[in-house]
Design a protein that fits this description.
2 domains; mainly alpha
Length: 111
Amino acid sequence: MTNWDALGTLTAALMAFMALNAGTVKWLFERHENTIAEQLASLKREGSDFSHGVEREVLRLKAQLPLEYVRREDWIRFSSTLDAKLDAMRTELRAEITELKERLAERIDAL
């Protein structure tokens, strides 16, 4: 009977040890799962904050672009207008210079 008692005691101790290990493993998994859930929630908050920050920067950029950016078509129109004005001024100056030359030539002929 002693062997059976010892075997029963050993079996009970082994079962208790296995139950203790299973409980410890379960507790570790739950703890790990809670940590991962907290980290995931933190990442979601940070991602949300990041996306709001990016959205804010995009809106600021959209507000700033019209003040600092000139479209190609606008620049071409501005440049064409400026070139036309300069051409008109050059034509007027050439006409005045020609007129002055003629007056000068008349004065020289008159002397």
